[in-house]
Amino acid sequence: MDVELARTFLEIVRARSFVRAAEQLNVSQTAVSARVRTLEEQLGRPLFIRNKNGASLTAAGEQFLRYAPMFVQLWQRARHQVAVPPGRRAVLTIGGELSLWHPWLIEWLHWMRRSAPDVALRVQVDVPDSLTDQVSTGALDLAVMYAPQHRPGSRVELLLEEKLVLVTTDADAKMVEPDGYVYVDWGPDFAHHHELSFPEDNNPGLFIGLGPLALTYILEAGGSGYFRQRVVAPYIAAGKLHLVAGSPSFFYPVYAVCSAQTDDELIAVALDGLRSIASADPIDRRPTAVGPPLL
Predict the structure, then answer these.
(1) pTM of the full structure
(2) How far is CA 117 from CA 77, 86, 91, 131, in A?
């Protein structure tokens, strides 16, 4: 199947209109209609219902929507792999969860540029489910995340046994004040253990779904919350944050999900770099001024 057919299908779904899809693709409406007709002939099912309000998917269209993005991603992956930039021997694609990019994966990029300058890099940020799907289909060579799901076509490597620790901006605090506590959403496992440890505090006044945002907030406004130990270590060393004595900590391991379709040598180089960064002393990242946290 021509990849342009799948791209056209996805653009119509996004725009909900053949006319607007044609405008976005910079082709005629006749060309868009012809591509859809060809796609429907190949699949043997109608994909769209056209009406005065635009276009909506049929049941068959909804089914095809599950596969079209992966088809386009695989084509892009193949094109990037074949079109290796001049002076490079291979291309490595890596994805990661947002909260892992600063500073850990940024430092990994620097490591790769120094240690494997002949490898071109493609990097992206995404949510765990999407990252896992892309690795299993081969659209990504490797993804770094907290709670991966095992899928056919991939393997999981433990990179770091991180801990979540309770910190506060109040150096004299002996316990956490509920009004200043920020609940950070570290996923279902954290929620379960948090509830067991703090059964009386199940309805926090401030709930934040992203660690970097929560840490920026308490550094500016004051307060307390659970954060990755390696991330807050420089702030503790600088006296900007303080561990809450006697509070429980929770394990929060970091994993690499590797595609079985990628050359083992490339994966080995990437993992060497990730493990090298993971083993570095987090105190070396001590902040020089109060500002956005480097997560």
Answers:
(1) 0.61
(2) 20, 12, 11, 25
Residues 155, 261 within the same domain:
yes
Does residue 152 share a domain with residue 17? no
User: What digits encode the pLDDT tens for the residues 20-75?
Assistant: 999 988 999 999 999 999 999 999 999 999 887 889 999 999 999 988 988 888 78
Nearest to 7, CA basis, from 30, 20, 25, 23 = 25
Token couple for 273: 């770099």
Pair (80, 128) in one structural domain: yes
Same domain, 237 and 209: yes
**Residues 152, 155, 161, 165: is their CA dihedral positive or negative?**
negative
Query: What CATH number does residue 204 fall under?
Result: 3.40.190.10
C-alpha angle 10/123/275, rounded to 5°? Answer: 140
Range of the domain at 21: 3-66
Question: What are the structure tokens assigned to 287, written together?
Answer: 């902040």
Indicate the number of domains in the chain.
3
